[in-house]
Amino acid sequence: MSGCAWKTKVTSMPMKISPQYVAGFFDGEGHINKVGSPVITQRDPTILYAIQRRYGGKVDSNYKRGSYRIRFRRYEEGKFFREVTPHSFRLSGAVPMVNHPSLTNVRWKRYMSG
């Protein structure tokens, strides 16, 4: 085994996560990218794979930074926004997000209105 923790193989252990947990995790580690999709970055990919099992998305790695991220495609993000937004301070608007060009036309508002 090499000395880099981010190169260790992820075991497939079952992990159940709630929308409330994911909302708190997103509030601390996530952001909305420039096209309006949620992205969560983390050094340990275990929780990202658990989120992927529940909501879809793609987990990939940045070897230069030693981190992983989960990104959602447009057709996958609806379930994420519908279940997570009511419990997220950042997505629900309770805590304003930093001025971001995508927030003027954020797709998650569409998921929440209908």
Q: How does this model look, in words?
A:
The structure is a single chain. The protein is 34% helix and 16% strand. The N terminus is likely disordered. The radius of gyration is 15 Å and the shape is globular. It has one domain: Endonuclease I-creI, CATH 3.10.28. It has 114 residues and is an alpha+beta fold. It has 5 helices and 4 strands; from the N terminus they run αββαββααα.
Span of the ends, CA to CA = 50 Å
Largest sheet, strands/sense/barrel: 4 strands, antiparallel
Total helices: the number is 5
Q: Domains counted in the coordinates: how many?
A: 1
Assign the CATH topology. Endonuclease I-creI
Task: Say which CATH homologous superfamily is assigned.
Answer: Homing endonucleases
Any idea of the CATH class?
Answer: Alpha Beta
**Which second-level CATH architecture applies?**
Roll
Provide the spatial order of strands within the biggest beta sheet. Answer: 1-2-4-3
SSE inventory with pairings:
Blueprint: H1 19-29, E1 30-32, E2 38-42, H2 46-55, E3 58-62, E4 67-71, H3 77-84, H4 89-92, H5 108-113
Antiparallel strand pairs: 1-2, 2-4, 3-4
Can you summarize this structure?
The chain is of the alpha+beta class. The protein has helices at residues 19-29, 46-55, 77-84, 89-92, 108-113; strands at 30-32, 38-42, 58-62, 67-71. A hairpin with a 4-residue loop joins strand 3 and strand 4 (67-71).
